[in-house]
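Meet my pick.
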Amino acid sequence: MRQRALGLTRLATSRVEELAAADRDPPVQLCAFFVGAEEYAVDIMRVEEILLPQRLTPVRGSPAFLEGVIRLRGAILPVVDLRKRLLGEPSPVNTPKTRLLVCWVGRRRVAFTVDRVSEVVRLRRSEIKPAPALGAVGPSPFVVGVYSDAEDREGGGPESERLKLLLDVKALLLAEMLRDSG
């Protein structure tokens, strides 16, 4: 009986230690997607839904990366072309894999056009590395972190490592909002 009580105590202690470790390094979920040949991700908590492309209404005088607006269940949402915003390239015509990521940016919803959604990734916060500095310029204002594929984290070689860039969706729009308000 004493052995069993001691075993249960050890089990409870190890579970408490495991929970404490999880609190220090919480899990995060990211929605990964492609824009051109690059793979990016955003916090899944910002993503409300993923849609097929919708019919757009253009907005004259808007920034080049703002494709237009859509009506979604009675709300009007701006549609940002991430290929234009991140790469400065025009987007190809919508493909069968093109999607709109409807994300919360502060209290607003914004739809981002992406070439394709790839996966939902679950990892520990410690697995996300800081954004790399690009010479004297510093890190990209849109990129807040970098992480590698799950297969690579579990022992793949560095030569096969595919990095994904974690985007700050607020920063994607902040420069334009500040310019327009100033």
User: Anything to note?
Assistant: The chain has four helices and eleven strands. Helices lie at 2-24, 82-87, 150-153, 169-181. The first helix runs from residue 2 to 24.
